[in-house]
Amino acid sequence: MSDGTEAESAGTGPSGLPPGQAVRREHKPLHYGRVPSFRPQRWDFRVFGATESLGTYRWDWEEFAELPRAREVRDFHCVMRFSVPDVPWGGVRSSDLVRLAPPAPEATHVMAWGEYGYSANMRMDDFLGDAVLLATHRDGVPLTPEHGFPLRLVVPHLYGWKSVKWLRSVEYMVGDRRGFWEERGYHNRADPWSEERFSHQEGPGDGPPL
Ligand SMILES: Nc1nc2c(c(=O)[nH]1)N[C@H]1C(S)=C(S)[C@@H](COP(=O)(O)O)O[C@H]1N2
Ligand SMILES: [Mo]
Asked: What angle do CA 111, 178, 116 make, to 5 degrees?
């Protein structure tokens, strides 16, 4: 019984969300462990590992604030089956960071490190995705502590656990290694459009052996 409107495409929700996701407008903070306190004198952000120079890059809070800034509005998809539509983020583009801290040609993946050792791995091309930000702002104001103040990664095209809150460093890697949730049963890549939720769904070559 067609009313002339387009049928939903298979596996995709009516709102254009990835399959298996429902809208939740309120961005309820979700994380493992406690919210760290920010001490600007002690805070730094580092890029290390397989850099082109083999050296480590470091910015203190004042220096980080001088980096070029950008904005992106993107849906945010958590593996717990909710999506927050149209989240406005502000911060530094991963592509600008990589320009300032060039990786060695052999670097294929990155590990994003948060406070307390939380981590998430991703391919270099996912890290360099066009809307990926090292975000300091949400809705035009600084992040709240629960949402990652002073700095978080936002990788909107992958499930939310890759968007590391309280980001402190990025490690360039030659080859892949699993991060915190990727070692604990979650999918190595985490593409929500393919519902890459769990590690048991991985095919050969999707990630390092568990
Ligand atoms: N450091 C850290 N970052 C984290 C998490 C965490 O437990 N620790 N949880 C992730 C998960 S599962 C999601 S869905 C998002 C939630 O972001 P929000 O709290 O801003 O909604 O943060 C991600 N980043
Ligand atoms: Mo999540």
From this structure: 60
Closest-approaching ligand to the CA atom of 162 = 1
Nearest CA to ligand 1 atom 10: 161
Percent of the chain with pLDDT over 90: 88
pLDDT digits (tens, 9 = 90+) for 138-182: 999 999 999 999 999 999 999 999 999 999 999 999 999 999 999
106 contacts: CB under 8 Å, gap ≥ 6 = 50, 174
Q: What string of DSSP letters covers 95-112?
A: HHHHHHSPBPTT--EEEE
Neighbours of 35 (CB within 10 A): 16
The structure tokens listed for 176 are 């892949």
**Closest atom of ligand 1 relative to the 165 alpha carbon:** 3
DSSP 23-91: E--S-----SSPPPPP-TTT-EEEEEESBTTSSPEEEEHHHHTTS--EEEEEEEE-TTSEEEEEEEEEE
CATH topology classification for 42-201: Sulfite Oxidase; Chain A, domain 2 (3.90.420)
pLDDT tens readout for residues 112-146: 999 999 999 999 999 999 999 999 999 999 999 99
